[in-house]
Structures are given as C-alpha cells and as structure tokens.
Amino acid sequence: MKATETSWGVTPVPDRLRTLSLVDGLLLWGNLGISLLVLVAGALLVPALGLKEAFAAILLGAVVGNALLGLAGLIGFERRVPAMVLLRDPLGRRGSYLPTVLNVGQNLGWATFELIVIATAANALAGRLFDFHTRWVWVLVFGAVTLAFALAGPISFVRKWVRRFALWAVLASTAYLTWWALTGADLGHLWWQPGKGGLTFWQGVDLTVAMAASWLPLAADYTRFNRDGRGAFWGTAVGYFVPNAWLYALGALVFLSRGLSDPAALLPALAGGGAAAALALLALTVDETDEPFANVYSASVSLQNLFPEAPQRVLILLVT
Q: What is the Cα–Cα distance from 291 to 47, expressed in whole angstroms?
C-alpha cells in the first residue's frame, strides 16, 4: 500500500507529502490554540493580578512561548522527522527512548485531561438545555471523534474539518463570547483596578509561556509536512499566538466582568449565560476535540520511534 501522510512513520518525509502551506499551518495551529483549558487558565491570573497587568503578562508570555514553538516547528521542517526522532542526534537512538516514553505518557495524560474537560463542558450544556447529566457518554462520543481525526491525519484534519467548519464556528463563537463578556462591564474600572496579590507578574508570564511550551515536544510531528520554512515557523508561531492570547485574555475578562470567585465556575457561567452563549460554548466544546486528536496522533508517532515497523493506524487504535 502506498504510504501517505496519514500513515507516514519516522523516516524523513518526502517532498511529495510536504503539502502544508502557510495558510494550512495558520489554520492548524490556530485551531490547536483554541482550548477551554486556556480560558480557565486565563481566569487563574485574576484577581491576583489586575486586568491591565494580566493582559501585559499574557502578551509577553505569548510572544516568548510562541517564538519558541515556531523555532521547534522550523527544526521539524528542516529535518523532516517527528520530534522524538530529532532526539536521536544528541542522545543516540537508545538515548531517545526515555524521552519518548515520557512524551507518550504526557500525551496520554493531556488527551485524557482534555476529554474530561470537553465532557464536563458538554455535560454542563446538556444539563442546562436538556436536564441530561451523564458525563461518561460525552467521554465516549468525543473519544470516537478524536479517533476519527487521528486516523485521518493532520493534513486531512486541516483541509476537511478546520477550513470547512471549525474555523468559522470558532471565530464566531469567540467573538460573541468576547462581546458577551464586555456587555454591561465597566471596562474602565476593571482596567485600572489593582490586583489583590498572591501571584506575581512574572509568574503570570510563566503560566502563559507554559501553554505554548507544552506543544514543543509535538511541533515537529506536524511541521515535517510543511512546504517551506516560512510556513513552518510563522504558521506555527502566529497561528497559535492569536487564539492563545485571545482566550487567555477572555478568561480573565469573563472572570472579572461576571464577578466570579472560582475559576472552576467559568465554564458553568458560560453555559448559563443565555442561549447564544451556550451555543458559542457548544461550538468551542466540539472544536476542543482537536486537542486530544493532536495528543493521540503525536503519542502514536512517538511510539513509532520505539517500534518503527508498527503500523501507525494500529498504534492510534491502541492509544485511543
């Protein structure tokens, strides 16, 4: 069977499969930057930091974190191999095995955590709208969607899902939730209100950098399919920067403008914010499946560093 990007292993990607454009990269990483977890993380910055200080920490942290992410993506493009295979040069083949095992473990942990976040948000929405409270059903549903995306591969994911549906739904939803958070809020008061302490500015920067940095061990798994270095760097760095910074800021804004006292209350507050807010949260919840997709796909690709002859699709099924 002719190898395609959906099943390409750990050997350098040939030119015929390097088809991701700059726009594709922007869409892929832009979609990966949309995360309910980022919304909640943004809420963690306040009220310890004031809104103005939180926004400054978000901007600085996002610039630093995404510059590093772009560089990781550029290295993956230049070497044409997955992230864990890149470690063979400095560590040797066997030396790369331990980081590979750790990376597989962290990918599985993130995928599990993301599915729980998605299921929790879906359960909150279903409870509000239909009085239906069964979280495990949503874990199974979104687990199946994750499996389908991982089997399709990153290029099909971008061109058949993100370009046609996810991009427009996410843009509309995030724009609406931003408007909803601003409606009735005294932005001038919130902007100049000082923080209450408990978190320093640089800790806020670290928290923002961490989200982009968490993708460093995965970046090359996707940018090895880029057509050129420009698309690999800028598609990754800018693509992830825009939604990442936006959602961090939105999480902080919602927390303050809605008078919340616990970051865990943020998603239920959105679910209870009226029909339009609930629909916007629903769109973000469905789109969230790109996060476990990326983790499942990268875990499978990483396992191929240990078992290069194993079919990628079989590993995806086992991981999921």
A: 28
Other residues' Cβ atoms within 10 Å of the Cβ of residue 146: 27
Which of 61, 27, 28, 43 minimizes the C-alpha distance to 245?
Answer: 61
- In this prediction the pTM is 0.90
CA-only gyration radius of the chain, Å: 20
Helix (H, G, I), strand (E, B) or coil at 164: helix
Q: Which residues contact 168 (CB under 8 A, 6 or more apart)?
A: none
- pLDDT of the residue at 220: 97
Please, are residues 241 and 164 in contact by the beta-carbon 8 Å criterion?
no
Tell me which residue of 12, 62, 32, 29 sits closest to 232, measured CA to CA.
Answer: 29
Task: Locate 11 and state its tokens.
Answer: 């050997």
Closest by CA to 135, choosing from 144, 148, 147, 124, is 124
Over the stretch 15-39, which tens digit does the pLDDT of each residue have?
999 999 999 999 999 999 998 889 9
| DSSP state for residue 19 in the 8-state scheme | -
H helices of 50-153, in order, are 51-79, 83-86, 88-91, 97-130, 135-152
For residue 210, what is the enclosing H or E element? helix 201-213
CA dihedral 201, 202, 205, 207 (to 10 degrees): -100
Task: Tell whether the torsion through CA atoms of 155, 160, 161 and 164 is positive or negative.
Answer: positive
Q: Which of 60, 109, 127 is nearest to 271 (CA)?
A: 127
Structure tokens at 261: 């006292």
- Ordered domains of the chain (ranges, CATH): 24-319 (1.10.4160.10)
Residue for token digits 């009085």?
131
Backbone angles phi and psi of 199, in degrees to 5: -150, 130
